[in-house]
Amino acid sequence: MAGCEDLKELLEIEVIPDVEEMIDELFEEIAEAKEANEDSKAEYAELQELRSSFLALLSDIEDNDVSEEECSEIYKELVKMIESEGGSEGV
Fold this sequence. Notes:
79% of the residues lie in helices and 0% in strands. The chain has 91 residues and is mainly α.
């Protein structure tokens, strides 16, 4: 059963870097287009919020504010999301 250490590792090694990469790619697309349409702005804001949420979760794990059971449930959900998208693109 996955616990907080497994979730912390998944966040640090895969999830957060993937979200940051998606943010960077979107930022590059916006820069190349020289302007952002409303959809791009909304997607950028969502990705920033998602990144912030994952960083807050990571901080809570490090402060022992998340139970092993909660970590296990979150871990399973994240793995399901990753697998359903065929990779980390859907995180």
